[in-house]
Write a structure and sequence with these properties.
By secondary structure, the chain is of the alpha/beta class. It has 17 helices and 14 strands. It has helices at residues 12-25, 38-45, 49-61, 97-106, 126-139, 153-165, 180-192, 207-215, 232-242, 263-275, 297-301, 329-343, 348-359, 363-387, 412-421, 446-449, 452-470, and strands at residues 65-68, 72-75, 175-178, 198-203, 219-226, 229-230, 246-249, 279-283, 306-311, 323-326, 391-392, 401-405, 427-428, 442-445. The two termini are 43 Å apart.
Length: 471
């Protein structure tokens, strides 16, 4: 069907995308034709499943292919099928979720980064990290050997105390330290999900989690987010229709929408999980950024059905890569075993470093200052976006993000492309959708968005769009 050249300088993902685009453009593959399954194509061409997943995601994002739940990928019927094989589609081939992740981690030299997912250096707990480093150096910390399978005991005890303040009552033995929340989510996914399982995720949601689950062979179904949290009617209808194995969700200050689920909604989610035997994986990495004491799925459930994930990447430093996962004892044992099989122990040194920063007296003062700073940035950025005519999805005035769209900009991808050319990293909405499609939504990191140059750029793009529409 398509031919791949492993020795070529063109990446394999691009070769797959170009090959299917050519076949569709030549109408060798007509609308409605089913593409080979991900695993079948990977096996045929001796490439990784992840490579095929990424290629198919690009084809979906560009409108060449559509994903049908529990059925596979099909050639999409396109308006005006006269596009020539060599003609460029509306979206740049590079401008997909993998491009976005590479830009985030490889292009830190971009002048403006309102689409990124971390906080500026001077917003982090640099002072506490430096003091902890000095203490580690003077204390003669061991650099030989490995850490404990479950992670540094003193840090686990400290986390247990912090969780008790959130009404999650457990001991240090119920906590497994990980290399950031990404490893925690990966371990949970590999323990709970098997190839072919249907899994619910927030829609819009976390692109890296979606990649991870698809790589495991899961069939993803998006649960619509609402400004107040969940669309509960839609959630139950999706559970009844698809009978999913698990629901990976972020109730508090969700990325990218920043919506917050109410306690009443969380109770209902737990009722549905119990009724339909559904595992819940709660990603609560923004809990420390929330000034309000709120219930969580874990606090209401006390770890009977919920797997709870936390992290210090957003508040201490993303570079120390310290996260954790909490689960009922028998599942935590499985998670710990999988952690050891896949990567041995996590770093005892970085865990000690995090413990030193958390246990010194300035930690709570840092959190208070960080929350206040984020609230101020929320107010300022929201005011600027409102002034330009943007609609804001949710405004809790906490957390890192604003999810917004402009009525005159139906597709944020071309806007983000223009921004990249101007040295600005935006977060176009299609990257966060379960089924990528054109959308006007954008994710703004308020800590990097309170810059006049961003709003000058946006105002100019809106003006140019209006001129083009009037011509």
């Amino acid at each position: 069907m398509i031919t791949l050249h492993p020795g070529s300088s063109t990446p394999l993902v691009s070769q797959i995308v170009d090959g299917f685009r050519r076949l569709i453009g030549e109408q060798a593959l007509r609308a409605g034709t089913k593409l080979p399954s991900i695993r079948a194509l990977a096996a045929t061409h001796s490439v990784s499943v992840f490579t095929v997943v990424e290629a198919y995601d690009r084809l979906v994002a560009q409108g060449w292919v559509e994903s049908r739940s529990n059925a596979g990928f099909f050639v999409k019927r396109r308006a005006g099928t006269s596009m020539l094989p060599g003609e460029a589609p509306s979206a740049d081939l590079r401008f997909d979720a993998s491009w976005y992740l590479r830009q985030i981690f490889e292009s830190r030299n971009l002048e403006l980064k309102p689409g990124c997912g971390w906080l500026p250096n001077d917003w982090l707990f640099e002072e506490g990290v430096r003091r902890s480093l000095r203490h580690l150096a003077s204390d003669g910390a061991e650099i030989g050997g490995y850490g404990l399978p479950h992670g540094h005991m003193a840090l686990r005890m400290l986390i247990a105390e912090a969780l008790a303040e959130r009404q999650i009552v457990l001991g240090a033995e119920n906590i497994l330290l990980t290399q950031g929340s990404s490893q925690a989510l990966d371990l949970a996914a590999r323990c709970l999900v098997r190839p072919g399982d249907t899994v619910l995720v927030d829609d819009p949601g976390y692109p890296n989690l979606m990649f991870m689950l698809r790589f495991l062979g899961a069939r993803l179904v998006g649960v619509p987010r609402a400004p107040h949290g969940y669309d509960l009617e839609a959630l139950e209808a999706l559970i009844v229709l698809h009978r999913p194995k698990a629901f990976f969700t972020q109730p508090r200050l969700q990325s990218p929408s920043n919506s917050v689920a109410t306690a009443a909604q969380l109770h209902r989610v737990l009722q549905l999980a119990e009724k339909y035997d559904l595992a819940l994986v709660e990603n609560d990495i923004y809990a420390d950024l929330d000034p309000e004491p709120r219930s969580s799925l874990a606090s209401l459930d006390q770890m009977r059905r919920v797997v709870y994930v936390g992290s210090y990447s957003k508040t201490i430093s993303p570079n120390i890569r310290v996260g954790y996962v909490v689960a009922r004892p028998e599942l935590l044992d499985e998670l710990a075993q999988l952690k050891m099989v896949s990567g041995l122990t996590s770093s005892d040194i970085t865990e000690r470093l995090a413990f030193g920063a958390l246990s010194e007296g300035r930690w709570r003062k840092h959190l208070k200052a960080l929350r206040d700073r984020l609230a101020q940035a929320h107010g300022s950025v929201a005011q600027h976006l409102n002034g330009l005519g943007f609609e804001l999805f949710s405004e809790p005035k906490a957390g890192m993000y604003l999810w917004a769209r402009h009525p005159d900009l139906a597709d944020s991808a071309p806007l983000a492309q223009q921004a990249a050319g101007a040295g600005i990293l935006l977060g176009p909405g299609h990257l966060f959708l379960t089924e990528p499609r054109p959308t006007g939504w954008l994710r703004f990191n308020v800590a990097f968005s309170d810059d006049a140059r961003l709003f000058v750029f946006l105002a100019e793009q809106i003006r140019l769009h209006a001129q083009g529409a009037a011509a």
